[in-house]
Specification:
Distance between the termini: 28 Å
Order of helices and strands: HHHHHHHHHHH
Shape: globular
Oligomer: single chain
Structural class: mainly alpha
Radius of gyration: 19 Å
Bound molecules: zinc ion
Low-confidence stretches: 243-252
Helix content: 55-70%
Length: 252
């Protein structure tokens, strides 16, 4: 059941979305940029060794930690110079979607589900710098693998997050990893735990590693928990964000 406050926030947020905005174009742009980066980088990989292939799982783990860090330390903490990210996430995304009403209605709501495309470009620039360093220190294949994996993880993030805010779950609830992150992230939209718990959006690996999950179980159980509610901790401190009113942001 949606509160009057959330309904009012949604109405105000939707009213300031540019008329020209089109949700499907927003998503197409993200996957066009991400897919092109992945494809372009993959063209440069030739006769890779096993050690070079090992860059893929290593970057998956590093990206998972980075996603956790960014969500916990920037998206939920007001940092000078990065206030736009905090405003967009804590003060807008979390007001638009709550644990009680976590679903979007139309593709125009994609404006608040997906990151703006320039976030992907910033992420690809960072991955390219890392790839360049790796290529200079070790091997070109390793550097390109890094860019490929980073682009793939970003698209993975956006897709999984979208899966969390879709209403119809007849298929999603049966898909491994997706059902896990769906319960994990919708629980994160509970204002009582959102500042400290469930910061992963792809696989809850870092939440398990750093003890910031709302579940009390091992790594395998965390990854394949699905909708299971038996392991939810009931001893978590309730922390309010302190962000009472939610100004609608005209820009990012
Ligand atoms: Zn969300
Ligand atoms: Zn959050």
């Amino acid at each position: 059941m949606m509160s009057a406050r959330q309904a009012a926030f949604r109405a105000a947020y939707r009213a300031q979305i540019a008329p020209a905005y089109h949700g499907l174009i927003h998503v197409a742009l993200i996957y066009l940029i991400g897919g092109s980066a992945l494809w372009y980088a993959a063209q440069h990989i030739h006769a890779a060794t096993l050690a070079e292939w090992a860059v893929v799982p290593a970057v998956v783990v590093l990206a998972n930690m980075f996603e956790w860090f960014l969500h916990a330390q920037v998206m939920h903490r007001p940092r000078p110079g990065l206030m736009g990210i905090y405003n967009r996430h804590t003060l807008a995304h979390h007001q638009f979607f709550t644990q009680e009403a976590p679903y979007h209605d139309t593709t125009r709501d994609y404006r608040i589900v997906f990151f703006p495309p320039y976030a992907l470009i910033a992420f690809l620039v960072m991955a390219s710098v890392g790839g360049f360093v790796l290529a200079a220190l070790w091997s070109a294949n390793a550097g390109w693998f890094m860019v490929c994996t980073a682009a793939g993880m970003y698209m993975n993030y956006e897709f999984f997050h979208w899966c969390c805010h879709v209403e119809d779950d007849r298929v999603l609830r049966r898909l491994p990893f997706i059902n896990t992150i769906r319960r994990h992230h919708i629980a994160h939209h509970n204002t009582a735990i959102m500042m400290n718990r469930n910061m992963n959006l792809t696989y809850p690996f870092s939440d398990w590693l750093f003890g910031t999950s709302d579940l009390n179980r091992g790594l395998f159980g965390h990854l394949f928990n699905g909708y299971d509610t038996r392991f939810i901790r009931h001893d978590l401190p309730k922390v309010r964000s302190g962000a009472r009113s939610a100004p609608v942001m005209a820009g990012e």
